[in-house]
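Q: What would this chain look like folded?
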Amino acid sequence: MKINSALTYIKNYVFLAVIMAICCLSRIVPDCGGYAMSIYIALVYCRYSIAVLSPIYLALCLIFDHTLSGIIYAIAPVVIMLIAKYLHYLFAKPMRLYAVIVYSVLSALPLLFVDFPVYLNLEYIIYAISLVVVCLLSCTICYALGVRGIGRMLSVDEMIGGFVLLALLANGIYFINIYGFRIYYLLLGLLLPYLYRNLSLTQGVVIVGAIAVGGGLWNNELAMAGGIILIFLTAYAFVQNKWIAGVSAILTHIICGLYFDIFEGNYYLHLAGFAAGILLSTLISEKHIKKLPAFKSSGGRESAKELVNRSRQDLARRIGLVSGVFYEMSNIYSKGVVKYPSPTQAVPKIAQEVILKTCAGCINREYCQNLLGAQQNKIIEGVISTVLTSGKATIEDLPQYLSSKCIQLPALLANCNHLALSYDIKYTSGKEFEVDQKLMSGQLQGVGDILGELGDEIKSTINIDDKLDKRIVEELGYNNIVCSDVMTLTKNGKSTVSLLVRERDRNKKALSQVLTRLVRSPLEKSDERKLPDGRYCLTFVASPKYSLTYATATSTKQGSAASGDTYSVTKLKTDKVLVALCDGMGSGTKAREGSQSALDMVSSYYRAGFDNINSLSLVNRLLSVVSKDSFSALDMCVVDLEMGVVDFIKQGGVQSVIKRLDSIQIIDSKALPLGIVEEARAQVQRQLLSVGEMVVMFTDGIMETLTLNGIKHILNALSSLNPRQICDEIINQAKALGLNDDASVVVFRLCPMQSAEGNR
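A: My prediction, written as C-alpha cells:
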C-alpha cells in the first residue's frame, strides 16, 4: 500500500514537472520568457509541496535559460514563495488569491533590475501583466483539478483558466522541433478523434480552439488556428462513422495546407505526423475511448441523473416497506378466520347443550337416564335435526314415551328450537364473515403484490444521455422542428424521450422518425401536454413489435331497452391490451348495468396490475357477495403486443375461435360465470398468435343462433383480414337466421407496428 502511494506521489510530480517544462518553452510575448513562473506559484497556492516543486522549477528554468536573466527568473519566485509560505504559517493565515497577485508581481520585478533599459518597454509590461493573469487563472484550474479531479463540472472561471493553460501547453509543444518536424501535429492528430468522438460540439470547439490558438501564437499565425478549428468541425460533421470523420479531417488539413498555405515549415512532414496520429487514435475502440476522462460543462446533467436515481431508490424502498405492511395485514386476516362446523356436523354438540340446559335441575334426571341411557342423546339429536330441517320442532316430533313421561317437556322443546336456530344463524353469519375475511385478505395480498412489483420496477437505474439529447435537438432542427429541451431516459434497454416543441411541430411525422433513428428502436407518442407558454411537452416510448386492429358489432334483443352485453378494449401497458366481452344475465337495463359493473371492476384490477387469476377471483367473490341474484359471463383476452401471445381468460363465456392461417381453432369454455359461486375458478389458456391470424369472440346469442359450425363456415368462406367485415358478416348472418337475443362480436388481429391500421 505504501509503495503504491509512493509511486502515485512520484508520478504526480513527474507530471507537474512536464507541465512546467512545456511552459518554460511557451512564448506568447516576443523576446520574453515562458510561463513556468506562473504555474509554479499556482501549484504552491494549491498546496503542493514547495520543498519538491522548488528544486524541480529551479532545475528546469536553468536548463532552458542559464543566462543572468534566466537565473533571476528562476530564483526570484522561489525565494518570494518560501518567505510567503513561512509568514502565512507563522501568522496562521491562509494564502488568498489577492496575496497571489502580490507574489506574482514581486516575482516579475527583479527582472527590471538586471537590465533596466532592455526590460522597461511595452512588451515587458504586457508580459508582466500576462504572468499575473496566467498565474490567477492557473490557480483556479489547478485547484479544480487537484482537489475535485478530472471529470467534474467546471465553473466559468475554471473553464477560462483551463483554456489559457491548454493554450500555453500547446504553445510550448509547438516549439519542439525535431529535424523540421513539429511534434505538435502528431499530438493534434492523436487528440482530435478523442474530442469529436467523446465530447460535445461545444466542448470540442473550446478545447481545439485553445490548442489552435496556442500553436498559432508562436509566430502570430492565427490563420493556422482557424484552419485547425475548421478541421475539427469537418470531422465532427461525420462523427457517426469514425473512419469517414478521420479521412475528412486529413482531407481538410490538405486543403488548408496546400490551397490556403496556412501551415508553416515542412508541410508534408507535418501532414504525415497528423495523419499518423488520426489513424492511431481512430483504431482505438469506442469502448476504450469512452473510458478516457472528459470535462463536464455547466450544461451537464449528471447531478440530475444521480438525484433521479437516488429518489427512485428511496421511493422503491418505501414502497417495499408498504408492500410488507399489506402482506402482514393479509396474513392476519387469513389466520383470523373463525370456521364453524356445519349445522349437520354440530347436531351432537347442540343436543348435549340442550340436555345440560334442560335436565341439569330436573328431579327425574336419574330416572330418565336409567330408563333411556344412551338413547336419550339420540332422541334429542333427532329433534335438533328436525329443527334444522323444518325450522321448528313440536310435541309431535317427540317419541310418545318421552312426551308422556318428561316433566320438562315445554322447556325441552323451547331449548331445542332456540339452540338449534341460534347455531344456524351463527354458522350463516360466520360463513359470510369468513367470505369477507378471505376477500379482504385476497385484496390486501394483491395490493402487496402490485406494490412489490412497482418497487422492483422503480428500483432499476435509469440513464440520461446528454450527448444523445443534443443530437436529437440538432436533427430535429434540420427538419424544421424547434425543440427547446429534451431528455432521454434509458431503463432496461428501453428508451423514453420527453421533449418540448412548438404547437405547430407536435404532429409532424419527422418527430418519431428522427427519434427512432437516433435511439435505434421504434418509438411512439404516448402522451402530450400543453404548457402555459403554448409549447407542448411530448413523451415518446418504445413501441411494441405489434399493434392491435379490432372491430366490434352488437345487436339488441327485439323489444329490449338495452343490450345486456358490454365490451371493452383497454390498454394496460405500452405492450399489453385487454379485450373483454361481458354477457349479463338476461337483457335490458339491469342486465347491462350488471355486466358493465363486472367489466369495469375487471378492467380496473388489470390496469392496477393484478394478474389474471387474482383479478377474476377477487371480482367473483365481490359479485357473489353483492349480487346473489345476478351473474355475468366474462370472456377476455390479454394480448402481449411484444411477444405476440394471447391469454384467453374465460369465466362462463362461450367458446372463442382463432382463424389460423390454415385452420380453425376452438378455445373451449368450461368455467362457471362470475357471481354464481364464491370459489369459481377462471379458465386460462395461452396461445401464440401470428400476423394474419384473427381471434373471434362472441356472446351466447351468436352461439345459439349460428352454432360453432356456422361460425366456422363464415370464417372459412371469408378471405378478408378486415375485422370489420367479419363482425358485420357474423351479425348479419345471425339476424338472417332469426336472431332473438342480445348478441355481440369482437374480432381482432395483430399486425406489424409499421403497418398498423384500423382501430387501436
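The domain at 546-755 is CATH 3.60.40.10 (Phosphatase 2c; domain 1).
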